[in-house]
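>> received
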Amino acid sequence: MVKLLKLPITTAVDSGTTTATSTGQIVDSGQNFETTVRIGDKVKMTVSGETALVTKVIDDDTLDISADIAVSGEAFTISRIDHLFAPVGEGILCDIKSATLVELFNAGHYSHHIKITATGANSLLADAVNAAQVRAAETIWTDVVVDVVVPEGTVLTEYTTAT
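>> returned
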């Protein structure tokens, strides 16, 4: 059974500025939330840094959120977390090319690898990938997916498979 490392990939899906306040909601007239936002997406207020999850898309202008964080006139971003599942196989080499580029190589198969675009990538991310590989090796065979705990300040934004 192949073990898989699970890495969170965060994609920006929308942004705006609140035009009104209502308890537990984001209101931005002229938005297109019904097209861009899903339940579970993360809202982050730009000034305060507070976050909440989308619990319901009411209409194009209004979202219900899990916490009362919105202030009228404050900018916000909405992001979605998907996951990259990387097979461990014989092991994974995490090569931090720069703060914005990370490459994962499967040991023994260096011609195929995964390129990850990031912000704030550093050696702590490589340490996190290595720690996840150790956990994968130490778990029973039925525990096939192991989370990579991405260090604070690092965000993985997209990936491609390269040859």
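>> The chain has two helices and eleven strands.
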